[in-house]
Amino acid sequence: MNMRLTGKKIVLGMTGGIACYKIAELTRSLVKEGANVQVVMTSGATQFITAVTMQALSGKPVYTDQWDARIANNMPHIDLTRDADAIIIAPCSTDFMFKLAHGACDDLLSTLCIARPSSVPLMIAPAMNVEMWQNPATQRNVKQLISDGVAVFGPASGDQACGETGLGRMLEPEQLLTETIAAFQPKSLKGRHLLITAGPTFEPIDPVRGITNLSSGKMGYAIAKAAWEAGANVTLVSGPTSLPTPYGVQRISVQTAQQMHDAVMKQLAQERQDVFVAVAAVADWRVANASEQKLKKNKDTDTPQLQFAQNPDILASVAAMPDAPYCVGFAAESENLLQYGAAKRVKKNIPLLVGNIGHHTFGHDENELVLFDAQGHRALPRADKQTLALQLVTEIARRIN
Ligand code: C5P
């Protein structure tokens, strides 16, 4: 995957809180993604992690003081944000949220936030004890910040350093990185609902054996992630995979094709979906005479006699619905992709079909795609799956908007 924050200048403001130790990791990830990170710390933050650590990781001197004479005109509160693409406050303490909500400027970081050009987005990652987060005063401040256009990342719920449990945990560095990258993405699917199937299915033979395929789920998960980054509300119906659920995505885990079909239909009945992307490698057949108990090998000559029944075609069922969402199918072929892909799109009666060569993609991080629609076909050259997913999401958005 390309570095996704290349050329972005991010002012990373740190305030007092034990979550400061996680910002070392966030800084490294931001830098790895190509960002130019300027750390600014409040004096509270320096109680938890040193400016030396943050300078070493960001590769830039850290600013902590509004009277810092290193800036030629002695106006760090102005100069530090003039070429910034975003300001992220992480961790953002209860007190700092109060200061932002009320326009306080009694130290470098708060002054810099209020003095930022209106075009520079401000994002905060709250981190505090559960009672502090739930306190009505804090909740008033969050509401105010949201209505002022500040993006609030999290907080999450869980164990807290103080020993209590609940809302107020700062998001993990990886999740903050995802939020940051998403903040720079065009919101081409803003407010849209996408339903995606991904991964293989598993059709039981008996309680310990089954029939599955080599799909890893990577392409479907990458599309789910890209669609969330583009502003969509994403539900992922996934067969068994070892992949983590993409941040921000609702995942429904299933095993068999029938369960995947039922989960898709239930979701469609519950909530209007704008787009359905069928990426899953669904088993065409299930074992009709699956055994309740483990099949025993009694004699060396014994072989089980499996009978098969056809599974429902999920994509075809959705495409045939009277008020069908915009349907995107996948075709994993082993040869003649251009011919089979075009024919499959027509047969499935869908506006867009994405073709790939199955054994060249299953389990791999890279892929190449061919998009088939009523106008013809277009190749998306070999790239990592996340890059391709982003391109596909852009293509889908262009077609439905
Ligand atoms: O016909 P074929 O299985 O090659 O079609 C592949 C496309 O149809 C994929 O988008 C796949 O997710 C979808 N499909 C489905 N239900 C099935 C079989 C395939 O949704 N039972």
Features:
alpha/beta; Rossmann fold; binds cytidine-5'-monophosphate; 2 domains; eight-stranded mixed β-sheet; 401 residues; single chain
Task: Determine the CATH superfamily of the largest domain.
Answer: CoaB-like
**Number of spatially distinct domains:** 2
Give the second-level CATH assignment, the architecture of the largest domain.
Answer: 3-Layer(aba) Sandwich
Distance between the termini: 27 Å
Which term fits the overall shape?
Answer: elongated
What does this structure look like?
With 401 residues, this protein is an alpha/beta fold. The protein folds into 2 domains: 175 residues, Rossmann fold (3-Layer(aba) Sandwich); 196 residues, Rossmann fold. 33% of the residues lie in helices and 25% in strands. It is built from 14 helices and 19 strands. The strands form 5 sheets. It has an 8-stranded mixed β-sheet, sandwiched between helices. Strands 2-1-3-4-5 form a 5-stranded parallel β-sheet, sandwiched between helices. β18 and β19 form a beta hairpin. α1 packs parallel to α2, α1 packs across α8 and α9 crosses α14. The radius of gyration is 25 Å and the shape is elongated. The two termini are 27 Å apart. Bound molecules: cytidine-5'-monophosphate.
